[in-house]
Amino acid sequence: MSVSINAALRVPGHQGEGYFFKGQRYLRMWWKPGTPEERKVFGPAKITDEWKIIRDAGFTSVDAMLPSTNDPQKVYAFSGNRYVRFSFVPGTPQESKIFGPAKIVDEWKSLRDAGFEKVDAVIPIPSTKKEEYEEEAYFFSGTQYIANTDVEVYGFRGTKYVRFRFTPGTPKEEVIFGPAGISENWATLREL
């Protein structure tokens, strides 16, 4: 069985847990990086049954999620050419819309200027400096990205994934694990 995902988001305040989105469904799972240890925490469930802000924005699926680095309970959800920003408390029905839904190109000048009508994936840029913008991130669309620090990430594409470390703007990168099949190494995601 081959597995693919559309978007992923770490669960704020819950070490080792993440939300994984595929099509109109999602699940929440715990895993220990670099090991086969994992377990389902919740789901799979229909996104629009559990995420009311996403449903009310008219989204049936999620392409990418971007948490605020200063307050990870505040997120941007991207779907097609639109997005919505909201806050939530994991494991509860508590959600509050902050902004949107709106067209990406109407509100994100840097994405519009880069020709990104849609966002395939996004990852925040880690920062320890309070004066930096809380929403600094790398945005990916098709084969292009826009956005500096060493970053360790999981990259998912189709039925495969790779865990790697890179320094943006330089040729420096190091594969930590993979490429490998998602279904062979993320058993819980087979349920999506």
TrEMBL record:
Signal peptide span: none
Hemopexin repeat coordinates: 2-54, 59-111
InterPro entries, alphabetized: Hemopexin-like_dom_sf, Hemopexin-like_repeat
SMART domains: HX
Source organism superkingdom: Eukaryota
Record's protein name: Hemopexin family protein
